[in-house]
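Please review this one:
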Amino acid sequence: MSESQSPGQFSVVLTDTIPSDAVDLESCAAACNPHALPAALRGAHTAGVRASTLQCRNRSGDLVGLWPLGTSRPPPGLSILGGPLVPLYDLAGAPLLDAQQATAILSAMLAGLAEGLAPGRALLIRNLQTEGAVWDAFLALQRERVIAISTVETWDRAILDRSAAPTAELYGTQSLSSGTRKRLRAKRRALEDQGSLALVVHDSPEAVQPAFETFLALEAAGWKGRAGTALGQRPGDARYVVSVLRSMAETGRAFMLELRVGERTIGSGLFLRCSGEVFFWKTAYDETLAKESPGVLFDLMLTEWLYAQPWFRRLDTGSDASVDPASLIWKQRRPMANVVISLSPWSVQGRALVAGQKLRRWLKGLKRRVVSA
């Protein structure tokens, strides 16, 4: 454990321990990050994912900042910290910051890293929301030349904000054309001819486990299984995801939904909660029923279910840059980015990291073009 002091105001520590009072921070945080909650961190540790937490406390000892960070080494020879912990499966990389003092807290946390709490002089942060109070805090520190922010990749995520419409029915009317709604009603009737159509909720650790096995089978039977990228084909990744799900479900912050026709599951989704925000973690559907659009029907019934929950405020679809937000039924947008945070504007490590990340992105794009040619 390493510690840094900010005289008279904050103390900052980088440690492997999980703070027991992080739940108090969740309710007043400037932005949600479900992977920063204690239950998610416990689930990651159980699955063998090594993580450090950068913690900031005020003079009264209250936890006011929490940021899960892991060690990575891109490019070769450069050891840095970054977030989220498991980039392929984690949805957010931002710290939890008390909304009342977000910029001051972030400044103290980054100063602690710059003063020697972390290897290297740069952070690689993926899935960072580029609007709102946390992003404003980063920009404020950049204007003060405390840090330098370099953007590696940007995209828009589709989100559902409850404030966009007073009811799920009206939201559907605003989001989908009359012709699309008519076609989806016909598809729903076609499925209902095979059995009753229902959305089933699994929100306890005991219920999540068998539902997760059904999800794995559903995903493996589709194109991901044929491509060798299904979660069940990566045992370590599957162990991480289900461990986090079970741990989060113990505190009411994770659930799974299944779309069923009779007793047959034709769609499945994994969800994490942080305060009133829901993060859509993963989804799979029965591709033999593609003509009936089970994925779209699942999303519509999910919207109805969320509107029926009094705690619900917003759905984040968790999509990365490969997903066109226009392909989803939700029409609000959240700007996202993968960024490099240099802990000083003159950081050599930061410049090397930016160059390495851009080269990596170019090589991935080249590979996709060669494969599709």
About this structure: The chain has a mean pLDDT of 89.
